[in-house]
Amino acid sequence: MPNEDLDTTDLESLEKYRSYTRYLRKAEEARNKPAWWKTYRSYVEKQDPEHDAEKVDIGLPYLRPSRLKEVKERTQMVKENKKNAELERASRLRTLKVSLDRVQDEWGKSSGPFHIQRLAEHYGVFRDLFPNALFLPQVLMQINYSQDNGGQVHYGNRLTPTE
């Protein structure tokens, strides 16, 4: 049994952590100790030695907009929306129309690049095109092919050579 080496007759002699951070530090040390059994990590490292290699950021630096400015704009917009009775009525009756272009623009400015980066990692774009490298896309591109259906290329589309 795992705890058979503990002497339960004298519990006062056991080590006391006296704080959660000390306990957490000891637990991390115990977790990082090499185990005598085979682990998933050992199997993966045997198959692919570069599996956990540090990736290099080859992109432009991400310039985050001022948080204070964002919060002020958001609170001002919320105040204006609360004063607008027509907007409140339309949202309550579920007849409010929201421009998809405005939503896409806001997504592209806020969390869009991070979503695109996660998709590229998931589909292996970085692994195939830029080994051991990644970047955060700064420019959103709209790519269209001149075909009959007029379909737009989205993130993760699979295109055949004939297309």
Describe this structure in words.
The chain starts with 19 loop residues before the first helix and ends in a 10-residue tail after the last strand. It has one domain. The protein is built from seven helices and four strands. The protein is mainly alpha-helical and 163 residues long. It has a two-stranded parallel sheet with strand order 1-2. It has helices at 20-32, 40-47, 67-83, 85-92, 100-109, 112-122, 125-129, and strands at 56-57, 133-134, 143-144, 152-153. The mean pLDDT is 84.
Can you describe this structure in just a few lines?
The chain has 163 residues and is mostly helical.
Largest sheet: 2 strands, parallel
SSE order in H/E notation? HHEHHHHHEEE
N/C terminus separation = 62 Å
Q: Radius of gyration, Cα only, in angstroms?
A: 27 Å
Give the number of DSSP strands: 4
**Helicity level, as a percent range?**
40-55%
Number of domains: 1
Discrete helix count = 7
* Spatial order of strands in the largest sheet: 1-2
Shape: flat
Give the overall pLDDT as a whole number: 84
Spans of at least 5 consecutive residues whose pLDDT stays below 50 are none
Question: What portion of the residues fall into strands of 2 or more residues?
Answer: under 5%
Strand-pairing-aware structural class? mainly alpha
Protein name: Large ribosomal subunit protein mL38
GO cellular component, one term: ribosome
InterPro entries: PEBP-like_sf
Organism: Notothenia coriiceps (black rockcod)
